[in-house]
UniProtKB/TrEMBL annotation:
Identification of the protein by name: Large ribosomal subunit protein bL17m
Gene Ontology molecular-function annotations: structural constituent of ribosome
UniProt cross-references to PANTHER family, sorted A to Z: LARGE RIBOSOMAL SUBUNIT PROTEIN BL17M, RIBOSOMAL PROTEIN L17
Record carries keyword Ribonucleoprotein: yes
Family: Belongs to the bacterial ribosomal protein bL17 family.
Length: 249
């Protein structure tokens, strides 16, 4: 728990104080209900990276994945881990979108970012009382200040009016290298919408394709070939006065 934030009075969620008809004007439908399938039971995650098993190992592994996902905005993971991590990423963004509309949330985040590590945060500068639950949740999963700042300053404005999932999950073809038993379920690509990477599906737009070295060399070779053909055609024309009045084809 964050030092100094535990004594903040917890207010009711914003959705409980706003009529249901006006919620669509404040945020999209994705902030009210997850737009991805939610299983009845948590998926079992294999041990990896020396984390170990159990609830603690599971939380540590999910925390590492969420940090990498919010930092890079696209990851390639084993399919069970990708599907389970997607649920936590969707839920964290959803909570941040809903909490961003509460008065004082932005000031609370800025106060935490300006504070020094290990020191108690003084909340006297806040004009209004605000719940610290969402900030504590973001700090627990992301831990790094620049990722918490990115969540509230980049992802919240991007996903505020979303009516679809915040993430996409693509299943990759199974590979037999180094052995067919490497991964029973295969691998998948988990990404956040609006990321700067090329699309996984569809036409990949390359605006600087003509500047690639291979394309520059091919273009130069084609120009040289065309110039040679033009010189041969011009040299094969008759030099008589009668022929000079007509064009050579």
């Amino acid at each position: 728990m964050i030092d100094g934030l535990a004594h903040l009075p917890v207010l009711n969620r914003l959705s409980s104080s706003i009529p249901a008809g006006s919620q669509s004007e404040l945020y999209g439908a994705a902030a009210t209900r997850l737009r991805i399938p939610v299983p009845d039971r948590e998926m079992r995650m294999p041990r990896g990276g020396g984390v170990g098993g159990g609830k603690l190992g599971r939380a540590i592994q999910l925390r590492q994945i969420l940090q990498a996902l919010f930092d890079e905005e696209r990851l390639e993971l084993r399919w069970p881990i990708a599907t389970e991590s997607r649920l936590y990423a969707e839920r964290l963004i959803q909570e941040a979108v809903r909490a961003s509309l509460e008065p004082g949330t932005e000031e609370l985040v800025q106060l935490w970012l300006r504070s020094e590590p290990g020191k108690i945060i003084h909340l006297d500068d806040l004009a209004v009382q605000v719940s610290s639950a969402t900030l504590e949740l973001a700090v627990f999963w992301l831990t790094k200040p620049h990722l918490v700042e990115k969540l509230f300053k980049v992802f919240v404005p991007r996903y505020r009016f979303y009516d679809r999932p915040y993430t996409s999950l693509y299943r990759l073809p199974r590979s037999n290298y180094p052995s067919p038993q490497t991964s029973v379920h295969g691998f998948g690509v988990l990404e956040l919408h609006g990321n700067p990477w090329p699309p996984v599906r569809g036409l990949i737009v390359e605006p600087y394709k003509d500047r690639y070295l291979i394309n520059v060399l091919v273009s130069g070779a084609l120009k040289h070939t065309h110039s040679q053909r033009a010189s041969k055609i011009s040299g094969s024309c008759p030099h008589s006065e009668a022929a000079s009045s007509t064009s050579c084809s």
